[in-house]
Design a protein that fits this description.
This protein is mainly β. Helix content is about 0%, strand content about 50%. The protein contains no helices and 14 strands. About 25% of the residues are buried.
Length: about 140
């Protein structure tokens, strides 16, 4: 009913799908999704998510991660790129470089790599639509 214009996603990136990799599941290969993704299992491959990515306490990724926004409580061995905000909870263990527009690190999170914040990662702002009107005389 009410929306917050600051947190509303652009229609092109919004997706109603939700994907879950449950605890006890192991996937060998890359994952790409336009919907939200929660990982509580193990992934041996790269993960690309154009929505929100959540890696639970038992989640373990051996590969690079690219997402719009993310929350990590598990383990990632690889580069992490978040176009918006990345939150590292106290149980997070990152073995690789992190690049995000903004990130939050809770006390207890472990990072072995370089952290970079960059506004250039942010999603481009939607340009106002320009309508051309021609008048004939």
């Amino acid at each position: 009913m009410f929306t917050n214009k600051k947190t509303e996603k652009l229609p092109e990136t919004r997706s109603s799908s939700f994907n879950l990799i449950a605890s006890g599941t192991e996937i060998n290969g890359d994952i790409t999704t336009a919907g939200d993704l929660r990982i509580d299992g193990r992934i041996n491959g790269n993960v690309s998510c154009t929505a929100k990515l959540v890696i639970g306490d038992g989640g373990d990724i051996n590969g690079n991660v690219n997402c719009c926004s993310g929350e990590i409580s598990g383990t990632v061995q690889g580069q992490v790129i978040a176009k918006e905000v990345l939150q590292l909870n106290q149980s997070a263990l990152i073995q690789g470089d992190i690049e995000a527009t903004r990130f939050i690190v809770e006390d207890g999170a472990s990072i072995n790599g370089r952290c970079t914040t960059s506004r250039s990662l942010a999603l481009p702002e939607r340009q106002p639509e320009v309508k051309l009107i021609s008048y004939e005389t």
